UniProtKB/TrEMBL annotation:
Source taxonomy: Bacteria, Bacillati, Bacillota, Bacilli, Bacillales
PTS EIIB type-3 domain span: 1-100
UniProt keyword Transport, yes or no: yes
Keyword Transport: yes
Protein name (database record): PTS sugar transporter subunit IIB
Length: 100
């Protein structure tokens, strides 16, 4: 099962996107555990995360999160704004495949 962790300031603004991603994963037949966390919780989730998706408003955390050795990327602005779960899921799966 893929573990996808979304990071934002406090883990609240990404909760709608998490729900949308869970729906998209079920529809695509992708087994994934998706959660939202606050930026201060990253260290607690490094071992379990297969990939980190970072909310646009905390994009400045990209380098520090990527330094943990897990694939990470900033969620595309349009994907985030529209809570496009299918788009975010595609981005997460692509990052895992690339190992970026």
């Amino acid at each position: 099962m893929n573990s996808i962790v979304l990071v934002c300031s406090f883990g609240l603004s990404t909760s709608l996107l998490v729900n949308s991603m869970e729906t998209a994963a079920k529809e695509a037949g992708v087994q994934a555990q998706i959660r939202a966390i606050g930026s201060n919780e990253v260290q607690d989730h490094v071992e379990e995360a297969d990939v980190f998706l970072i909310a646009p408003q905390v994009r400045y955390l990209m380098n520090s999160i990527a330094a943990h050795g897990r694939p990470a990327g900033v969620i595309e602005g349009r994907t985030y704004a529209l809570a496009d779960g299918a788009g975010a899921l595609r981005q997460a799966l692509a990052l895992m495949e690339q190992g970026v």
